[in-house]
Design brief:
It is a single chain. By secondary structure, the protein is α/β, with parallel strands linked by helices. Strand 6, helix 7 and strand 7 form a beta-alpha-beta unit. The chain has an eight-stranded parallel beta barrel, surrounded by six helices. 43% of the residues lie in helices and 18% in strands. This is Deoxyribose-phosphate aldolase/phospho-2-dehydro-3-deoxyheptonate aldolase. One of its GO terms (biological process) is carbohydrate catabolic process.
Length: 209
Amino acid sequence: MTPLIELSVLSPAASVETLYAAFDEVHRRNFAALTVPPFWVKKLHRDWSDSLPSTLSTAVGYPYGYQRTEAKQTETEWALRDGAREIQVVLNTSAWFSNSNGWPKIEFAKLAKLIHQHEAIFTVIIEADFFDEPNLDRALKTAADAGADYVQNATGVFSPTFDIEKALLFKRLTPSQVGCKIWAQNAANEDFAKLQEHAVERLCLPFIR
C-alpha cells in the first residue's frame, strides 16, 4: 500500500521543521510523493536523493486556481527550475462556471507542454464538491484531453469529511488514460480498501505531526 500514498504539507502554518519531518517520513516509508509549497521546493530538492523513488511535488494556483494563466506559468517555470518533478495545478472554477469556461483547457494545454518539456508529471486538481456529475465528467475529460497525467478530486481545503461514494464516482468518471488521485483525509480503513479495489492510483493525505 505504501507506494500508493502521497503526503502533502500545504498548510500556511507549516514550518520548515514540519516540512523536513514530512520529508523524512516519505523517505523512511517509501511513499510515492511529497507535495510542498513552491517556496520550499528548492531547499528540499537540495536534500532529495535521485536514487529515491519518491517524487518532489508542488501545487500551482493553490488553493483556488483563479490566478492568471501567466502567473501559473511563471510559478510552474520556477518550480521546475527549483527541482519539482510534479506540478499540481488547481482548476480555475471561477472561469469554468462562467462565459470563460473554454479557457481552462487552453490553460492546461499550455502548462502540460511546459511541464512535459521538463519530463515532469502534470496533475490537475478539481474541487469535485463544486461540480454536479455532468460538469465533473466534462472537467475530467477536459483535463485528460489537455494532457494531464493525473487528476485529483480535492485540494483538501474544502473537504473536511470523506465521502467514499463521491470518491468512487470521481474514479469512475476519470478517463482511462489518466491516473486518479483521491484526497483521503479522514477516510476509514474500509474506505482505503475500497479505493484500492477500484484501482485508484494514489491516495493523498495531509502530513500531521
